[in-house]
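Lecture notes, part 5. Sequence design as translation. It can be helpful to think of inverse folding as translation between two languages: the language of shapes and the language of residues. The source text, in C-alpha cells, appears below.
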C-alpha cells in the first residue's frame, strides 16, 4: 500500500434531496413492514431503477461534497483485473448534524442521562458493468492492512454494494476494500451516494428522519486497463496535491459521463416517441366498457400494471415516507360476475 500516493477524486455536486438509513442492516430489510430497502443501495444504479438517496430525503440545499480516494493510484486511470483497491469515502463540509458531533458515540440508544442526539451520516456504493450488473467484491478487512479495517462499513447480504454500518456515530469517512472482476473486459460504473444527516429534530422520539439532511450522488466511469474513457466536457483534470495524483472536479446534480448521459437521453427520446405513438393508436380505437363476466381476467395477477412486486413495495415505502401516509396503494379486483 502507498499511503502518500492515494489517488484523489474530488466530487463536488449540486445535491438533490435524499434519505439514507441510519443503520446499514436496514438496506437489507423488507421495504414496507421492515422499513428497509429490500436489498437495494439506492445509488442511482440500473437495479435501483435509477433511484438515489433523493427518493426519501427532501429539500437538501446541496452544500456538501465528497472525496473518493483509492490505493493503488491506478484505479481511475484504468483498473487492473483481479486487483484489490483500498477505497476511502470522505464527506466534506458537513453541516446538517454538526451540532451533535461533540456527543460522539455517547449518544442515542446507550444508557445516557440526559438523552443526547447523534450525528449520523452515511454512504452507499455499488460498481456495475455496462449491463447494470454489480461486479467485483467488497470487504471491510482493509485489503489486508489491519490499520485500514473499518468497523463502520457493511456489505449488503447479496454482496452487491457496501454501506455504512451505523454502529458508530460522528463519522465523516469510511474505508473498505474492493476487488476488481477477474475478466476486466468492460468499462465499469461506480455509483456513490453520501448523506449528511441532521439528527431528526434532536429528540429521543425523532432521532432520524428524511428531512433537513444534505446529500450528494455521483456516477463515475472506471475505464478498463489500457483505455481512457472520454471526459466529454464533464471533467476538468488538473494537477493533484501529490505528484502523479489524479484530480477530477465534477459538477452536476447527479454526476455521470457525458457520453453515457447522451445515450440515456437518446433512449428516453425514443421511448417517449414510442409512447406517444401508442397513445395516438389507442385514441383511434373505439372504446367499450368491461363487461361483468370479463372482470375475472382483470383480477388475475398477470393483468397487474406493475408486475414487479418488489419494486411496487419500494415505491409504496417511498410514498409513505414522503407523504406520511399509509395504504390506498394498488387496485381492487373481483371475480367473475362481480360489479
Amino acid at each position: 500500500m502507498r499511503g502518500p500516493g492515494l489517488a484523489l477524486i474530488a466530487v463536488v455536486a449540486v445535491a438533490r434531496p435524499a434519505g439514507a438509513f441510519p443503520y446499514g442492516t436496514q438496506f437489507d430489510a423488507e421495504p414496507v413492514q421492515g422499513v428497509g430497502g429490500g436489498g437495494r443501495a439506492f445509488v442511482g444504479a440500473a437495479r435501483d431503477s435509477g433511484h438515489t438517496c433523493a427518493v426519501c430525503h427532501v429539500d437538501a440545499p446541496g452544500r456538501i461534497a465528497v472525496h473518493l480516494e483509492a490505493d493503488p493510484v491506478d484505479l481511475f486511470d484504468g483498473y487492473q483485473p483481479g486487483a484489490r483497491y483500498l477505497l476511502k469515502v470522505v464527506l466534506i463540509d458537513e453541516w446538517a448534524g454538526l451540532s451533535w458531533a461533540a456527543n460522539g458515540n455517547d449518544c442515542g440508544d446507550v444508557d445516557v442521562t440526559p438523552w443526547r442526539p447523534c450525528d449520523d451520516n452515511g454512504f452507499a456504493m455499488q460498481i456495475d458493468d455496462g449491463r447494470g450488473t454489480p461486479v467485483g467484491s467488497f470487504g471491510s478487512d482493509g485489503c489486508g492492512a489491519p490499520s485500514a479495517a473499518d468497523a463502520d462499513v457493511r456489505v449488503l447480504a447479496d454482496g452487491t454494494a457496501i454501506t455504512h454500518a451505523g454502529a458508530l456515530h460522528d463519522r465523516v469517512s469510511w474505508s473498505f476494500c474492493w476487488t476488481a472482476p477477474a475478466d476486466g473486459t468492460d468499462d465499469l460504473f461506480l455509483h456513490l451516494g453520501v448523506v449528511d444527516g441532521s439528527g431528526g429534530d434532536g429528540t429521543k422520539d425523532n432521532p432520524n428522519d428524511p428531512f433537513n439532511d444534505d446529500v450528494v450522488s455521483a456516477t463515475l466511469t472506471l475505464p478498463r486497463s489500457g483505455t481512457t474513457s472520454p471526459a466529454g466536457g464533464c471533467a476538468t483534470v488538473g494537477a493533484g496535491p501529490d505528484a502523479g495524483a489524479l484530480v477530477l472536479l465534477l459538477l452536476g446534480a447527479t454526476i455521470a459521463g457525458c457520453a453515457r448521459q447522451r445515450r440515456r437521453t437518446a433512449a428516453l427520446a425514443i421511448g417517449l416517441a414510442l409512447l406517444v405513438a401508442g397513445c395516438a393508436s389507442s385514441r383511434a380505437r373505439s372504446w367499450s366498457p368491461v363487461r361483468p363476466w370479463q372482470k375475472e381476467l382483470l383480477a388475475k395477477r398477470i393483468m397487474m400494471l406493475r408486475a414487479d412486486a418488489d419494486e411496487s413495495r419500494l415505491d409504496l415505502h417511498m410514498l409513505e415516507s414522503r407523504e406520511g401516509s399509509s395504504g390506498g396503494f394498488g387496485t381492487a379486483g373481483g371475480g367473475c360476475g362481480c360489479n
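The translated text above is only one of many valid answers, since several sequences can fold into similar shapes. Residues 258-284 form the longest helix (27 residues).
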